[in-house]
């Protein structure tokens, strides 16, 4: 043979040596050997061991606490052991699909550990665990990345390097595994699927928290939907996440029927407006709060003197540090998040057809209903939601004129200019709903190059400078309110202004260092009503250029704002001032975890009690009927919506 022929044979042999191995009947690594038990048993035990390590890593990542993770697995028949079995079945089933033993780990591990990391970060900054519905607004998270990168550039760089390195190693490992590990036989793949698919299907069938499951109960998987932090702590990240999947569907309340809706008391209040219709302007100020409430903190000069002088009471926010859309939902509709699944976001999940709101009603009375937000129109799905709420138009970043920035975001002063300009240019009465943007977190130090305040506090320099950035933004919001009020005082047209913060700001370490909170965020289910009030109240102003500020409202849920605003404007409505007015005589706060009467009497954890106040029951029935049911109550409570329910095309 010639030298050239020898070289060709050598190359051919080399290529043949690199070919991916096929199924080998006598190779135990295939995990399936007809007539031989031990390799099958070994494969199963290895799959369980891998699942155990992975589940432990997931829980450790989410909890950030080694001792807490160990305690989660200590007792038998706890959800942790069920999770391990479920993960083993997932790995076995995916192995059958991929055709290689244990290759499924390269998909399952990166995916679940990434989710666990995101869940830990969300819990750290917002106080809530990761919900399946969070992925409905993932685009919003990416929109906030520039702010986060500016706040923590080295952390962002480390994350990018970590992601690129991880993906590179994953691709290399995947290709190496396909070359080195023999393929499974058809019988082996079928055996795995026969084991995994029916068991996983059965597991899925028992995870609807709204129905009782004997098997789930025996496995000690207890859905704790009223306290999601405890739900994730008790059931573990994976099972709690799975339990929350069905929350996108809202079940009818017990007793919902035509007769139940007909039995709800109808007040004699009808829709009416004054002969001279007042302009109504609502400003929901991003993260607006009184930072001087922080222990040991002194801010000079006072950042919110105008709010302090005009204050009507407090808005009791159902959220902390974020989830603005949920406060917005209550304030515009007069409905309550308390009657929706924990962790849900109505703007993302439930507002899919025309839904009654202040805009719907006021537009029916000749108002021009307008919404303004200097951010993008898709954020929180606002563009579609505002259309369903009945707004005539929504001006956002895409349609507003270029707005002057203060710091990295559009200024409150520029938004105030836009409100005044639009109101002065309108011949028709206007209803404005404005959502500010300037004081959105994170509050990086030195956010403003020309601060006008000074912060004194026994905390770290970073925390002090971060608090200064927040205080500057709050002062700008306060000046925006002052300008609106001074403008309205000079108007002949009656004007009502409502101003409130949506939630406490996400100040994180500032809360811990000042001793205001033990953690970066307040717990969902506060230990006492007093703590709930302290951590969820933001300033509320309702003011009229004819009668001045409304006084002594105390703390009120956003769902009651339509009642107070319309009453101040001299407007009546069968739901917003009739039904809500009667409800307001019984409660001023209706929250998922707390009911508070006008006299200050608190009922914590009311939803877990066997007997629920019939008034609360009717509130829930009415809301369900209008959002998800037959809209039987529309003619009596929302007459402006009758014969107008059509699907939007936004």
Automatic annotation (TrEMBL):
InterPro entries: Alkaline_phosphatase_core_sf, OpgB/LTA_synthase_biosynth, Sulfatase_N. Coiled coil: none annotated. It is a multi-pass membrane protein. Residues 278-571 form the Sulfatase N-terminal domain. Gene3D superfamilies: Alkaline Phosphatase, subunit A. Its EC number is 2.7.8.-. Its main location: membrane. It comes from the Bacteria. The keyword Transmembrane helix applies. Keywords: Cell membrane, Membrane, Transferase, Transmembrane, Transmembrane helix. The chain crosses the membrane at residues 40-60, 80-98, 105-121, 154-174, 195-214. CDD domains: LTA_synthase. Pfam families: Sulfatase. It is found in: Cell membrane. One of its GO terms (molecular function) is transferase activity. The keyword Transmembrane applies. This is LTA synthase family protein.
